[in-house]
Design brief:
By secondary structure, the protein is mainly alpha-helical. The protein contains five helices and two strands; from the N terminus they run βαααααβ.
Amino acid sequence: MAQIRSLFVAKQPNIGILIRALRQELNLSQEKFAAEFGVTFPTINRWENGHVTPSPLAIQRISSLLNELGERGQIIKATYFREQE
C-alpha cells in the first residue's frame, strides 16, 4: 500500500481547485474527465467542490497527468502540491 502513495501531497483545501485547473488545462468537461479517471461525474464534482478528497491512487494519477503536461503541469503542481517529508 505504501507504494501507491504519491511523492506529493495535495495542500488542502486546494485539491478541488487543482483538479479544476488540471481538467481545464486538458480542456475536458467534468464528464469526460470522470471517464478518463474511471469514476462518475458526481465524484469529480465532489472533488472540485471540496466535499470529498480523492483517494491516494487518484492523487497519484493526478500527479502523473501533471507530469505529462510538462512545464505547464509543473507550474500547476508547484502551486497546489508540496513535497512529502
